[in-house]
């Protein structure tokens, strides 16, 4: 009885903290979403933003500015959710606290494949990019896994991280090699390559919405298996978890979410690294809770980064991929210096 009370006493405060953080984060997300619509080269008062949102037929300069910024905000929310989800899945299935789509090469693979298709085949729409991006992400993922599995002891968190860094650097160099001789591609897609939300349009976002939904549904299906994997493959199998199927599902969901986001917004890094760690500090090691909180933290980080980029150099923008890199790089260094890299 005493042990049960003790466990409940340690569990309930963290659960309550998680619920409180989730509610507060939702409120903050709504505020940031409104600020994302209001702030720009021409600021629009929040009262006018709310008025335009309540009256789709409104006209005028403010109404036009609001309508142009809404797709940017929506893409920020979708991309933040997708990248945070992919990072959570990758950290769980590899038991690697440094895993995320950019560090393990998925973003780089998608970016290289898309840029190559732009330069050679002339593809020009995200609905076309996404399939090429998925192929690039899959090849990059296989390359990282193959490199990280070299040696008698097989894959380990540190080896996978190093392999991901090698593959990501190689893909970045190849992407530059493709772009440099093609001035037309550089001028047209240089902001996309950095990673940004400024090119968001509903005509581009809506056709890819089903892929976001499919990726998130697959991610939710994998969550119980990730909690089992955290205890080790052998124990997970002993508990009845289908280890290989869970890993395949998690890889598949990560590729879909990363490639779709990259097709629309470019290769935005570090969101999938920082967000799951922030959620883990609050709710512990349960991946269902980490995932739930990450779905809100991801859009918060991306919208906040986008707003910082708009305010710092107004009236021009600093693309969101640059801001997330400035935030995420120090976090990566701190995490890389931790001693217990073999565990989450």
TrEMBL record:
Locations listed in the record: Cell membrane
Membrane topology note: Multi-pass membrane protein
Signal peptide positions on this chain: none
GO cellular-component term (any): plasma membrane
Gene3D superfamilies in the cross-refs: ABC transporter involved in vitamin B12 uptake, BtuC
Any single Pfam family the record assigns to this protein: FecCD
Protein name, UniProt field: Coelichelin uptake porter, ABC transporter, permease CchC
Segments passing through the bilayer: 17-40, 73-91, 103-122, 129-148, 160-181, 202-230, 250-278, 290-312, 318-336
Keyword Transmembrane attributed: yes
Family that this chain belongs to: Belongs to the binding-protein-dependent transport system permease family. FecCD subfamily.
BP terms from Gene Ontology: siderophore-iron import into cell
SUPFAM superfamilies linked: ABC transporter involved in vitamin B12 uptake, BtuC
Keyword line: Cell membrane, Membrane, Transmembrane, Transmembrane helix, Transport
Molecular function terms, GO-annotated: transmembrane transporter activity
């Amino acid at each position: 009885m005493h042990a049960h009370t003790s466990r409940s006493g340690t569990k309930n405060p963290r659960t309550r903290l998680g619920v409180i953080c989730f509610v507060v984060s939702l409120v903050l997300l709504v505020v940031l979403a409104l600020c994302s619509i209001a702030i720009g080269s021409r600021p629009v008062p929040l009262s006018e933003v709310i008025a335009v949102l309540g009256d789709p037929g409104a006209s005028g300069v403010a109404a036009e500015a609001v309508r142009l910024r809404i797709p940017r905000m929506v893409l920020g929310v979708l991309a933040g959710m997708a990248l945070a989800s992919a990072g959570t899945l990758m950290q769980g299935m590899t038991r690697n606290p440094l895993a995320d789509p950019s560090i393990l090469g998925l973003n780089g693979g998608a970016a290289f494949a898309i840029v190559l298709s732009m330069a050679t085949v002339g593809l020009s729409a995200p609905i076309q990019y996404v399939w090429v991006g998925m192929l690039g992400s899959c090849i990059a993922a296989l390359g990282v896994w193959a490199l990280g599995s070299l040696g008698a002891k097989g894959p380990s968190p540190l080896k996978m991280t190093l392999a991901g860094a090698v593959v990501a650097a190689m893909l970045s160099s190849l992407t530059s090699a493709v772009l440099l001789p093609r001035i037309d591609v550089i001028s047209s897609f240089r902001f996309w390559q950095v990673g940004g939300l400024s090119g968001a349009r509903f005509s581009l976002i809506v056709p890819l919405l089903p892929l976001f939904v499919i990726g998130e549904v697959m991610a939710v299906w994998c969550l119980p298996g990730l909690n089992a994997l955290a205890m080790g493959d052998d124990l997970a199998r002993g508990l009845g978890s289908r280890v290989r199927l869970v890993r395949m599902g998690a890889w598949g969901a990560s590729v879909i979410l990363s490639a779709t986001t990259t097709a629309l917004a470019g290769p935005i890094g570090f969101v999938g690294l920082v967000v799951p760690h922030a959620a883990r500090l609050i709710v512990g090691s349960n991946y269902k809770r980490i995932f739930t909180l990450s779905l809100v933290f991801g859009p918060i980080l991306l919208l906040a980064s986008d707003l910082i980029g708009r305010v710092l150099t107004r009236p021009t923008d600093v693309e969101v991929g640059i801001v997330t890199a400035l935030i995420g790089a120090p976090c990566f260094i701190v995490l890389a210096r931790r001693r217990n890299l073999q565990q989450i």
